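Pipeline run #58 for the internal structure catalog. This entry was flagged by the ingest filter as a single-chain record with no existing model, so it goes straight to prediction. Upstream metadata was stripped on purpose; only the residue string is passed forward. Reviewer on rotation: M.T. Logging verbosity set to normal.
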Amino acid sequence: MTHACTRGLRRSAVAATAAGMLVAPLTGASARAAPLAVAAPRALTTAAPPSPSPSSPPPSSSGVRTLTPAVTARLDRAVRSVLREANVPGVIVGLWTPGQGRYVKSFGVADRSTGRKMSADLYTRIGSETKTFTVTALLRLADRHRLGLDDPVSKYVDGVPGGDRITLRELAGMRSGLFNYSADDGFVKALTADPRRPFAPRELLGYAFRHPALFPPGRKFDYSNTNLILLGLVIEKVSGRSLADYLRTEVLDPAGLHHTLFPSGARFPQPHAQGYTNQTASGAVATTADWNPSWGWAAGAMISNLDDLRVWARTVATGVLPDGRDLISPATQKQRLTTPSTPVPGVGYGLGVFDVHGWIGHNGSLPGYESLTLYLPAARATLVVLLNTDISHRGAEPSTLFGQAVTEVVTPGHVFDLGTRPATR
């Protein structure tokens, strides 16, 4: 779901035509035309792992296969198969299964022009995984009684159509009915005309508010980046601080995430991979490392790395910091993990997180980069996938293809499968 639940729980798509229509990028959130382009990885004819051999142990009582040499070899084959068939430049896969081993490997290249290898220490743009941080900041304010999740957004932000009837909870749960600004033709043209230009939050809302509401608030699920832009403004209003500052002191520092940041402009720490996308005005593939992610802001602008996302996966899924203290109160965390169904079977979406067959987390997609950060409470297993392209393969997001390929091998009872319909990016 992640926006990748259906390419979205991500990407807004406007079909490209000779007349110049574009495929619109989504911040790791699905654009209206195609909310989570997560086509079933089974479209990859060779990506599915072979049947277990006698040397591959069955899943343990936790539902996780021990990472024996035979299982590790199967993982290598599965990852390489997706890398090859989906034409992905490079990918980093991290899998941690307490008591049953770990798997951290990099495949392919970080930069096609130089041949520099992908490596596990690279920073990456995480797209809609930003939503997990923004909503966590909101929940921290709720725990401190600075705001209520059932407050109307109009209490904090002026000018929202129907804002007196849309609650903060509905924004965080993707049930506001507000149009996704990423799907607006004017926005798509502005972004693809100059992907290095900055966008202000109110400017982004302007694109969304040109359109009528899609449905009354609370009626159904519809992934929209607009929701998170509003929540970012709410956090700034209530805290009296910038979103970047509040996230750093109230979320990142307590969790010990020293390689995760809310960037200013196109800032991108070294080392990082070059990104590759076809979300351009012409549809040609372009490099994106220097593109400005401000258009994603509270919905998709953040940067992180493998080690930090490993820590964050468990933190966001449990509400508990690495030192055992609560980041989110148990009562509020319970609300966060209430995940009503989405249009994708087996996939639910709560407050800034999804549940895909038991895996809790989010995916992210920004032009040139995709990510997937998941935690399986039943087995205390963590999976992080980072790659340097967002170019779909047969309608499927590559991060979803990797997620499915890995989980089919290691957690066959909990396969990360977003289906063939878009869901959340």
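catalog note: The longest strand covers residues 101-111.
catalog note: Confidence is low (pLDDT under 50) at residues 1-54, 420-425.
status: ready for reviewer M.T.
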